[in-house]
Amino acid sequence: ASPGNSLIVADYGQLELRLLASMTECKAMIDAFESGGDFHSRTALDMFDHVKKAVDDEDVLLEWDYSHGDPPKPLLKDKFASERRKAKVLNFSLAYGKTAHGLSKDWGVTQSEAQEMLNKWYNARPEVGKWQAETKEFAKNYGVTRTLMGRYRQLPEAFSKNRKLIGQVERASINTPIQGGAADVAMMAMNKINVNTKLQRLGWILLMQIHDEVILEGPQETAEEAFEVVVECMEAPWVVGLPRTAVPLLVDGSYKHNNWYDAK
After folding, report:
1. E-assigned strand segments in 119-202
2. Pairing of strands 251-257, 5-12
3. How far apart are CA 207 and CA 216, in angstroms?
4. Which DSSP state fits 63?
């Protein structure tokens, strides 16, 4: 930032997964996000029986509020870090249509082992599987898919007889609503930030956007107040055509630094 200025760096937390929960009306995902805490730890609980047993037996804690001091027992994310990493990969992979074949390569396990974990994930979230199947079928029948705001993506390969191309269409058909929906949210939030009169009065300007993150620059003395406005704009980007999500959008960030590296 220029001398006397600082940066606001703000980004969405798990935006794509929140959109997936909302678009599919998945009860388990919506409940998990509304409960707060670590979504990937909750997924590991569904995927691995030994992790669930450890939590049920109170050998480890699913989550902990550090405002109450240090946890009295190990946390799931520390005790079962490997399982949580797999759960995190699985959460994002399924949002983008990855198959058991792809996951088996990622994890170095057999395809049947990968399929078993996929089945556990879908069994806990049946609405996601139903939405994906319907979305793929629509894309194959009509050659299009749409983002959250209704922007079209043409998929002409849907009418091909090539199975590989059809597979690409199926993945794109469920990927685009989510990643395209995240772009819809980010663009509308940027619009709100860019025209916000309070931010203009406080001397802040939007510099750039990186995926689901925005960076602004302005005077150090108004940074905290401006940061609150930015978070408000990002957590409520709703305009005509952009439906409010079934789960809250969460934004995290910083306003006390003058370079991006420290802000991150």
Report:
1. 144-146, 152-154
2. antiparallel
3. 5
4. -
Backbone φ and ψ of 74, nearest 5°: -60, 150
Name the strand (E) or helix (H) holding 255. Answer: strand 251-257
- Bridge partners of 75, per DSSP, are 61
Residues forming beta bridges with residue 205, ordered by sequence position: 217
- Tell me the pLDDT of the chain (264 aa) as tens digits: 999 999 999 999 999 999 999 999 999 999 989 888 788 998 998 889 999 999 999 999 998 888 889 999 999 999 999 999 989 988 988 877 788 888 888 888 899 998 988 898 999 999 999 999 999 999 999 999 999 999 999 999 999 999 999 999 999 999 999 999 999 999 999 999 999 999 999 999 999 999 999 999 999 999 999 999 999 999 999 999 999 999 999 999 999 999 999 998
Give the integer Cα–Cα distance in Å for 133 and 123.
Answer: 14
In DSSP notation, 183-215 reads HHHHHHHHHHHHH-HHHHHHT-EEEEEETTEEE
Q: What is the value of pTM for the model shown?
A: 0.90
For residue 105, the one-letter residue type is K
Report the alpha-carbon distance of residue 132 to residue 139 in Å, rounded: 11
Q: Which two tokens stand for residue 253?
A: 């960030």
Alpha-carbon distances of 26 from 23, 126, 194, rounded to whole Å: 8, 7, 33
d(CA 263, CA 15): 20
Main-chain phi, psi angles of 259, to 5 degrees: -145, 155
Residue-by-residue DSSP string for 17-35: HHHHHHHHT-HHHHHHHHH
Residue whose pair of structure tokens reads 């998929």 in the numeric block: 155
Calpha distance 249→186 (Å, rounded): 11
Q: 219 with 5: CB under 8 angstroms?
A: yes
